[in-house]
């Protein structure tokens, strides 16, 4: 079930995007506006306030079918826009990548989508966007991988297994870092 903020974000994003010719640009703008608008008045953009990022991305992903865009495309653009928005207000982009990726998993589960393919799209986008903003890709990979697996595991063992398998099998991702993150997480559990 969507949180109130996620539902509000979904409704806002869907209403902004519907009827536009350039759906992707409208989607990116709407997500970034939601994140920046929600965080700009926060004096100290902390991890707790970044929960807003997760809710905005959850809302965007759960509204994907209503705007006629593939869920993985929505995830890629949502992650990128959310991280950029957090960067704009001076927040921690690594935590933003983490929160946005968790939101993508939650939103996908909400609509019964493929959490494995969404995890791959989310991690690819997080690595690319944080890298463009000067963060180390290995650190992003570790943090986002563990966060998405935790989110998927909280949905159920099938979702967790799907995310692990998809991340380990994606040709575009750094397998050694993903394997180490998974092993480290499972060693702690």
Provide structural commentary.
The chain has 189 residues and is mostly helical. The protein has one domain (4-188). The chain is 78% helix and 0% strand. The model has no long low-confidence stretch (mean pLDDT 89).
**Which oligomeric form is depicted?**
single chain
- How much of the polypeptide forms β-strand, as a percent range? under 5%
How far apart the termini lie comes to 26 Å
**Proportion of residues in helical segments:** over 70%
Mean of pLDDT: 89
The number of helical elements comes to: 10
Number of strands: 0
Structure in a nutshell:
The protein has 189 residues and is an all-alpha fold. Helices cover 78% and strands 0% of the residues.
């Amino acid at each position: 079930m969507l949180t109130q903020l996620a539902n509000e974000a979904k409704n806002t994003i869907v209403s902004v995007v519907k009827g536009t010719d350039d759906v992707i640009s409208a989607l990116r703008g709407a997500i970034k506006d939601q994140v920046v608008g929600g965080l700009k008045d926060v004096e100290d953009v902390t991890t707790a306030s970044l929960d807003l990022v997760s809710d905005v991305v959850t809302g965007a992903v759960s509204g994907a079918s209503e705007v006629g865009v593939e869920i993985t495309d929505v995830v890629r653009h949502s992650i990128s826009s959310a991280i950029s928005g957090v960067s704009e207000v001076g927040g921690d982009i690594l935590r933003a990548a983490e929160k946005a990726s968790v939101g993508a998993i939650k939103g996908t589960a909400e609509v019964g989508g493929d959490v494995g393919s969404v995890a791959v799209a989310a991690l690819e986008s997080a690595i690319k966007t944080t890298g463009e903003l000067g963060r180390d890709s290995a650190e992003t990979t570790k943090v986002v991988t563990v966060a998405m697996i935790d989110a998927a595991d909280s949905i159920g063992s099938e979702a967790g297994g799907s995310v692990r398998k998809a991340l380990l099998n994606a040709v575009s991702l750094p397998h050694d870092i993903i394997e180490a993150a998974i092993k480290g997480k499972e060693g702690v559990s």
